[in-house]
Design goal:
Elements: H1 3-6, H2 13-30, H3 35-58, H4 62-83, H5 90-98, H6 104-115, H7 119-147
Membrane topology: Multi-pass membrane protein
Pfam family, one: ThrE
Subcellular location: Cell membrane
Length: 148
């Protein structure tokens, strides 16, 4: 193990989960959701993000953890919209909950690498980012299909 691998991560899993949970409601509001959509997005993100971190302990594949988290927040969004009695929309809850999972920095770095003629690293990062995005869509879709 190198010295770089031995260094602790800058944030704990609890801190990352809380940051994702606090940001999701604002994304939901940004996409024209109401306060109930925002609360639902916060709850869905809390459980989805925590579950994806739990799955990551056993399966260290980013696509699998993204799928697992998306499945959980998709199910919670559907339950929230249907059974709480609040005037909320599952689509807006999912839109807010998915944003902390989106690999935006990795995709930006991939484009930057490609633009600076680092084609191999740029294409591999872009492909990984697109697969994670596909896994998020697939997990959400499976949750939606199971709820209908």
């Amino acid at each position: 193990m190198t010295a770089l691998q031995a260094q602790p991560l800058p944030y704990t899993k609890l801190q990352v989960t809380l940051a994702a949970t606090l940001s999701a409601p604002f994304f939901s509001i940004m996409f024209s959701g109401n306060i109930y959509d925002a609360l639902g997005a916060g709850v869905a993100t809390l459980f989805g993000f925590a579950f994806s971190l739990y799955v990551e302990k056993f399966i260290r594949i980013p696509f699998v953890t993204a799928f697992a988290g998306a499945f959980v927040f998709g199910m919670i969004a559907q339950f929230w919209a249907r059974y709480t009695g609040f005037p909320s929309t599952a689509d807006l809850i999912i839109a807010g909950a998915v944003m902390p999972f989106v690999p935006g920095i990795a995709l930006t770095n991939a484009v930057r690498d490609i633009m600076t003629n680092h084609i191999n690293s740029g294409m591999s990062k872009m492909f990984e980012s697109l697969l994670i995005t596909l896994a998020l869509g697939a997990g959400t879709s499976v949750a939606l299909v199971l709820m209908n």
